[in-house]
Amino acid sequence: MIQVLFVCLGNICRSPTAEGVLRARLAREGLAGRVTVDSCGVGDYHIGESPDARAIREARSRDIDIDTLVARQLQARDFEKFDYLLAMDESNLAVLEERRPAGSRGHVALLMDFADSDQREIPDPYFDSEEGFSRVYELIDQACTGLIAQLRRRHGL
């Protein structure tokens, strides 16, 4: 079983959206039983909260359900549990690299590393409008296309 963890700042906007997108895409492609997906935040600002209402609305408009997800904070054990720990931006990536225990097995990278794009980061839409959430969704969807292709190649899915 391949395990993927999406990481953003508070786990209420970008990473739960990415979790929902990848789960839906894997289900459509018949890979849901081969890959598990989770998300978390590097900060403790929103532990126990649901995703931002704007993220929920954007996901629903794309037939993706993230309503029941609950924010949690990155834990040391995540570096051993997950094969891929994928950050939304350089700041999140720096925290992952800083907290990563020596010898941990998880591959740490930016989610956008898997996209066919010059854009490296998925911007935080928290202080943005609904349009910001739509743009974030599009970037995440694009990156998940590349991520699934990589998982297929690397793991023979």
Architecture overview:
This protein has 157 residues and is of the alpha/beta class. It has one domain: 3-Layer(aba) Sandwich (Rossmann fold). It contains 5 helices and 4 strands. The model has no long low-confidence stretch (mean pLDDT 96).
Order of helices and strands: EHEHHEHEH
How many helical stretches? 5
Query: What share of residues is helical?
Result: 40-55%
Query: In this structure, how is the largest beta sheet organized?
Result: 4 strands, parallel
Reading off the top of the CATH hierarchy, the class is best stated as: Alpha Beta
Second CATH tier, the architecture: 3-Layer(aba) Sandwich
Offer a few descriptive terms.
157 residues, alpha/beta, Rossmann fold, 4-stranded parallel β-sheet, 14% strand, globular
Brief digest:
This protein has five helices and four strands. With 157 residues, it is of the alpha/beta class.
Task: Outline the fold blueprint.
Elements: E1 2-8, H1 14-28, E2 35-41, H2 53-61, H3 78-81, E3 84-87, H4 90-99, E4 107-110, H5 130-155
Parallel strand pairs: 1-2, 1-3, 3-4
Helix pairs in contact: 1-5, 2-5
